[in-house]
Amino acid sequence: MRAEIIAVGSELLLGQILNSNAKFISLRLAEIGIDVNYHTVVGDNPKRLEEVITIAKGRADVLIFTGGLGPTKDDLTKETIAKQIGTVLVSDDTALRYIHEHFERSGRTMTENNKKQALVFQGAQVLANHTGMAPGMAVENEGTHYLLLPGPPHEMEPMFTKEATPYLFSVLGKKELIKSRVLKFYGIGEAELEFRIQDLLEKQTNPTIAPLASKSAVTLRITAKALSEIEANLLIDAVEKEIRSIVGEFIYGIDEDTLSSKAAELLGESNLTLAAAESLTAGMFMAELADEPGISSSLSGGVVVYNNDMKVKQLGIEESLLTKYGVVSSECAAALAVSVMKKFGTDVGIGITGAAGPDPHDGKAVGTVWIGIVALGEAPKTYKLSLSGLRNTNRLRASQFTLYYLIQFLKDKKAQN
Amino acid sequence: MRAEIIAVGSELLLGQILNSNAKFISLRLAEIGIDVNYHTVVGDNPKRLEEVITIAKGRADVLIFTGGLGPTKDDLTKETIAKQIGTVLVSDDTALRYIHEHFERSGRTMTENNKKQALVFQGAQVLANHTGMAPGMAVENEGTHYLLLPGPPHEMEPMFTKEATPYLFSVLGKKELIKSRVLKFYGIGEAELEFRIQDLLEKQTNPTIAPLASKSAVTLRITAKALSEIEANLLIDAVEKEIRSIVGEFIYGIDEDTLSSKAAELLGESNLTLAAAESLTAGMFMAELADEPGISSSLSGGVVVYNNDMKVKQLGIEESLLTKYGVVSSECAAALAVSVMKKFGTDVGIGITGAAGPDPHDGKAVGTVWIGIVALGEAPKTYKLSLSGLRNTNRLRASQFTLYYLIQFLKDKKAQN
Asked: Which residue numbers delimit the MoaB/Mog domain (chains A, B) (predicted)?
């Protein structure tokens, strides 16, 4: 089965927005085994859209349209396709009621053209829109499947997952449902991860395991097909267990977890307060942790000691220590952690020091970072990084690695209790 | 003149990367008055690419290809187009020498397939690649123009600007050169900016003025066409002056300036040191400022007082002040700024306090932020924000507005001296 993804919207052709919908849909279609052979973008122009449809139905079995379902006169996707496949538009009661409710909730007045959004092809399967107003739809005509989805990604993505995917499954003649779990990794590169689980990657067919690397994280998406959710979960659990036995130390969370949400969750669960002393990261670690609502019961605060003098003046780090070991050292990271913990009266202290670049710092090579973590009444632990990026990548990685080591530290503490 | 942008690469169809090249090229073509009617993405498949070319030359005058110019056997853009337009590939001496030099510099060994990258259409205009190895090319065949550009954006973008744009100008029969200057705004929304310079926007033809809003900034790109660079600059200067007379207070820089680079530049020029006390931003302001290399001579450091108690304990803010005015107040922001300036012995102090959300803080509505800025021996100035975003957007905006007000503050100081 071959698919073509067709985005309709002049704003794409003017370069005002990115076609991120095509990327999202392509990834999901790859997972369920539908090949994408083309992406096409066309403007809000019925004649050109008609030509695009004629070409697409000659080379693909599934045409997935995004955009052009709105209430304005520019939005012509439905009307143009209806004309091509010889169907008529009828008002969908459920969609119309939903649009009415939407306007009531927001206290705005509904205008006549908003009713246009409730029009769907006669006989089409309506795809509910739970995050916007325009419903989607799916219909088959002369062996070609037409799926129409809204343009805004926050409407399109949930509709694709919850409404369009089951339709495509039924088209593929599959009775199974599909379920995914994403494992989140830190501290391991994509190539290294793939190498270490190579056997698993090669032998898997159901569930499938798909690695994906973004700028700041590596993930594995485990996708199972099964006749029930329980069965799908059992299949995923088994593969997850195998993966954890090989590279479990690098997994910090699943699905929607982020480094900061996981660290905040563990701090909250263990009722621990934290303070940090940051040098090269200059507040980035604390700012990332504070992304999480409710963090004020865990994060007391901290000190940014960007300038070297300030490490001595603000945190009482002994000059003799700095002279003997240097500012970028295990000893300095530990001393920063201990000092800020005492100063802020917290349970846990963090110290981060390093050479971000572009120049070496205090004789240490660019990318050398020391992270110190200490808990009240315990000896500090320190971790060394040797990063190879540019200045701000190094600073970001230093901050992320601190979150990662903090997560491991808190998990170990939890396991001990 | 109608253009079609054709991206070649299976990784796009698998959803692994975004087609950001299409967005970049579309924006630039809009500026020089070439209409983009279609974007197409096709995989590394010669048969399908051939069909795409056949369709495209029937509906566009300029076909701009990105990707598929690399050394591997998957890279087939050149070979496929050569076959279609009936030309042959010849080795380009300049490109080959450049590839040789590239390998010499990096100390790696050049393999036979790298020579493939130096192949260009016989008689084509070679577009130099100054940031990678594969040269681009431009050629006309039966009234259709073919431009071939590399896929990696850091190679494609400078090549498009420096090499492809002059080619397109010559195709358009224009002898002029094109020159742009970007004005960077903060503290004003896109709609408000467009409204205030509406007359200018409507009457301009040369230079053109193009507004563009991204997540964190609003910009105006002034683009002039002229027979010489001097003339283009004069045209741009005149328009810039008009714009500044209307909305100059919101312009913080030009071209590559960012809020943090501009603030760092002004701090450096005026030889001032700075410390900050951050509450809701939790270090984000200092971390953004520390994006700039060499900032350690200006940024001494600061304190994150996330937890309310810490404002009293770490910075000696009087409890009576907090009781009387509240934590989210002009008075608290000023006191934080003064206290951290004294504590760190700097010339300038910054205080940031506010209610990020999701819940109101100390009786103040979500989005209420106070920023204090003080210079040694002067009375503190405070600024109030009423933001309407979610928690982390509010925190980001609070940090950016602090940079913006700091820039204004430093500019005023400079003007006084």
From this structure: 4-171
